[in-house]
Amino acid sequence: MTTVANTHSPLYSPSVGARRKNVKLPKLPLSAFTPPNSGTGDKFPLLPSPSAIHPSAILDAGVSGSVEDWKTQMGASLVAKSRGVILALPSADAELVKAAQEDPSVIAASVPFDLSAGEPDPASVPAFIASPPANFAIALRTTFTAFTPQLADGVHWAISRGLTVDIDVQADLGTEAGWESLNELLSNATSSERPQGSSSKKGAIVLSNVLPAPLDLELPLVKLLTHPQYRNFQNYTSTISLIPNVHLKFAPPKWNAPIPSASTSTTSDNGGESAVPDSGKKEWKRRIKMYLGQGVEAFGWQRIVYASAGAEGSNVGDWYALARESLAELGVEQEAVDGVFGLNAQGVYSV
């Protein structure tokens, strides 16, 4: 059977070499060949370089040791941008709190306070905790190794009174059991079924030693991507981020190695210090961004606070440079950098 082509069909295509006469192509307007009017002339806007993104102000949410040492290590240009520090005191001593309050650089203090026994006897609570001084915030610092109902009671007691609780996580977060235990603590401590305390404002919980999580630097980066330790971090940060008023402290990681310093430093146009990293610093940044990226995705940058406590044996200025570059290289906007390095801590510590 012979098939006859339907030359009137819109699907019909003439054979190669045939010409279609009297066909006029539509004319495109000149605007089709020009970029949109974005105020940048004949070029499209480009994202700012990470090296150019600096926080407008710095509030360090955890400084250990001497404030003067912190200033020396940070450098004059960064200290000039400082909005103050939250000082981690070695003990809950009234004289230490008084001295910190008299230092204009210190706007809040974090004091060690054992919450593992549950709700404390009112007679054992220092006056500066029961009735914090005006214009000076007090946060309680406690350690977590495993879930107990008593610890959940103690944390709940603190946050129901409007106090911020810094929890140093010492549980093994390389295992699911460690994460499950932490999740159980946070869920129980923040349960809406518990009776509330005397404060109308609910306090915050800030987790340390989670972002970045402890790891073995000998583990190759390609193996870390699929390692159970990192998989657990991804899964459980997403889970605990659903618990309200829980924040992550972006602090020096416990990687059993000193924080790498920059090989050279330059000063940017806005006065900030821009470090030229060596190979060791590049490797640290790659690993930090693996954890920081997941932390930002799960919690949002609004619930991450920068701190330098934990950088013993290293220069806190080096940690600041490493932390700032790592966050900026994630492609976040100026608002996020300002929040993580200053504004978020103001809300968390009520300063």
From TrEMBL:
Record region (Disordered): 259-281
Domain of life: Eukaryota
UniProt-recorded name of the protein: Amidohydrolase-related domain-containing protein
Source organism of this protein record: Exidia glandulosa HHB12029
